[in-house]
Amino acid sequence: MQYGTVCTPTFFPELAPKLTPMQDTIELKTHCDFITSSKHAPALSSTANASGPSRSETPTRDDVSRVEQAQCDEHLPPVDRGVNAWSFCAATFAIEFLFWGPQSSFGTFQSYYESNAPFNQSSSTAIATIGTTGLALEYGAGILLMALFQRHPQHLRVVMYFGLLLWLTGTFSASFASSVWQLIICQGVMPGLSAAIISFPTYIWVTQWFAEKRGLASGLIITGASLGGVCLPLTLDALLQRLGFAWTMRVWTLFTAVVGLAALHFARPRLPPGAMTRGAYPVFSFRTLFRGRFIAALASLLQAAGYFPVTVFLPTQASQLGISNPNIVLSVLNLASIPGRLGFGKLSDMYGSVALMAISSAASAVLAFLLYGFANGLAMLLAFSLLFGVIAGGYSSMWAQAARDMSSKEPEYVPVLYSALFVARGIGCIVGPIIASVLYHPSGSTRTGLNGSSYGLYDSGVLSIFIGSLLAVSAIVGLAGFVSKLSARRGKN
User: Fold this and answer.
1) What letters, b where the CB count within 10 A reaches 16 and e where it falls short, cover 77-116?
2) Per mean pLDDT, which range of 23-27, 203-207, 340-344, 437-441 is the poorest?
3) Do the domain assignments include residue 8?
4) In sequence order, what are the residues at sequence separation of 6 or more whose Cβ sits closer than 8 angstroms to the Cβ of residue 266?
């Protein structure tokens, strides 16, 4: 370890590598060498002894930590405050808007493809695969990417620019697509993978910039995706109607290039690359996930499997109900998720995440069973979109705190488990919409509801029950995790 380029983040325990006894000895000796030679070091008792150094000569771990702290405080920008921290937050917000917002808006493309040639020759399931593939890669690529990023942190910024190039290539190429399989590659695989490449480094860096305000910062950042989900459905729908599919994709590519370059310029780590030594941090393994953390991952998977079918099929259902501008309900849902994410993020800082995640899923299940199931017009569908956006949309803002809660005994695993929750959500966002597309057949359906009732008009009854059931099971699993955590605490007392 060479000081001047390396500064171990002692006030970020979740980022500090866990050392073996031998590594600890070597690390301490290196620190001691620095202390005795540094002009910033405090005076230490160092009476020479012919028989070797006495115990009073050897700096303690506390001495080392104080010098480390002074060095870090002197050379690094402050945590939880300052222009640099909030500039990073703003840049990451823009990244979420650009690269996660379109995936939240795929319902607009789903509706367009189902009613316009040449893509309307394909089934709803095939078309839905475009969006679910992109979402799955955005969430699911995290395991491999996080492992690579933690081993080679010095290359992250270069990799992010490569991700931007991959995104631009994919969306521009999509403008020439004439079949669904081409869209799966150009609008699904390439943007999904590149969005993960661009965004996952920022999920590592947010733990460097924010500690006490991490939940709030995470909530602010991911509202970028919500704002993208508000603006993009209306904007893309207008462009699709006026310019057509090909030129819509080209205009969007140009916009992403300009704003994306600016965002990547300001999205920087707080610590220098040398501070995150290669191989110093634990790499994800499924054994790690199953050591008491599986419940949170399973709850996230089930919540995603229930949440994403709503974002995919909500405009289609609105169109079936005769709403002239069906994309407005998707925009309302995404707009409502902004205060939901901010609120749940702040609450998780104050009260923890485990119980709040279960409450979010339970309330979302009630909304799916009732408001979504009995929706018969614009008023009920808007009410559902508003409430569901606040309650279900805020779920993912609690992940940062959830990873911290799950790793209270092993804080070095926080970034790893954060990525594990992304992977679980990625699996859910594939499984949920694909199964939902098999259950929901809007084309050719009548206004009759389930078994001739008023529940689930236009064959949406089974879809409502499917969504509500997944969210209810997610709440039960999350509640089991909360009870398990309480039992563990009582056992210690």
Assistant:
1) eebeeeeebeebbbbbbbbbbbbbbbbbbbbbbbbbbbee
2) 23-27
3) no
4) 87, 88, 90, 91
> Per-residue pLDDT tens for 381-424?
999 999 999 999 889 888 777 777 766 666 666 666 777 787 78
Range with lowest mean pLDDT among 12-16, 157-161, 309-313, 356-360: 12-16
Burial of 296 (0-12, 13-18, 19+ CB in 10 A): buried
Enter the tokens of residue 77.
């920008």
3-state DSSP percent of the chain in helix, strand and coil, to 5: 75, 0, 25
Q: For the whole prediction, is pTM greater than 0.70?
A: no
CATH number at residue 213: 1.20.1250.20
Least confident of 138-147, 274-283, 480-489: 274-283
Structural domain including 140 reads 83-492
Q: Which residue has the tokens 């920087």?
A: 268
Instruction: Give the C-alpha separation, 130 to 188, whole Å.
Output: 5
- Residue 163 sits in the same domain as residue 33: no
CA-CA-CA-CA torsion sign (242, 244, 249, 254): negative
170 token code pair: 């994919």
User: What is the phi-psi region of residue 44: left when phi exceeds 0, alpha when psi lies from -120 to 50, beta otherwise?
Assistant: beta
Our CA angle for 201, 206, 209, nearest 5°, is 130
Q: Are residues 105 and 239 in the same domain?
A: yes
